[in-house]
Amino acid sequence: MLTIATEIEVLARFGRALADPIRCRILVALREAPAHPAELADLLGISRTRLSNHLACLRDCGLVVAVPVGRRTRYELADPRLGHALDDLRTAVVAVATDADRTCAATTDEDCC
């Protein structure tokens, strides 16, 4: 069983992974279905080198795994529960953000979040 400190570190690592829009898009794409890097790069409209760097980050965070398939490698979420967590998080964040947009008094992005 993880300690509270370890759980907090895991959550922080998850947050760092989600801090980049491209990594978020990769996770959402893999939520739909496992994919090969070339497919992901085309889907996201980014170079394979850039995608590779983001996949390495997501692997290091323990969110995705590389699965050898013949001579190729397929990526998928490390655990199916991550897909459900992403769906729940996306729903909650969008709901909260919508409420915050109505009440936020910040004048610039630097004033908020």
TrEMBL record:
<feature type="domain" description="HTH arsR-type">
    <location>
        <begin position="4"/>
        <end position="100"/>
    </location>
</feature>
<dbReference type="InterPro" id="IPR052543">
    <property type="entry name" value="HTH_Metal-responsive_Reg"/>
</dbReference>
<dbReference type="InterPro" id="IPR036390">
    <property type="entry name" value="WH_DNA-bd_sf"/>
</dbReference>
<protein>
    <recommendedName>
        <fullName>HTH arsR-type domain-containing protein</fullName>
    </recommendedName>
</protein>
<dbReference type="InterPro" id="IPR036388">
    <property type="entry name" value="WH-like_DNA-bd_sf"/>
</dbReference>
<dbReference type="InterPro" id="IPR001845">
    <property type="entry name" value="HTH_ArsR_DNA-bd_dom"/>
</dbReference>
<dbReference type="Pfam" id="PF01022">
    <property type="entry name" value="HTH_5"/>
</dbReference>
<dbReference type="InterPro" id="IPR011991">
    <property type="entry name" value="ArsR-like_HTH"/>
</dbReference>
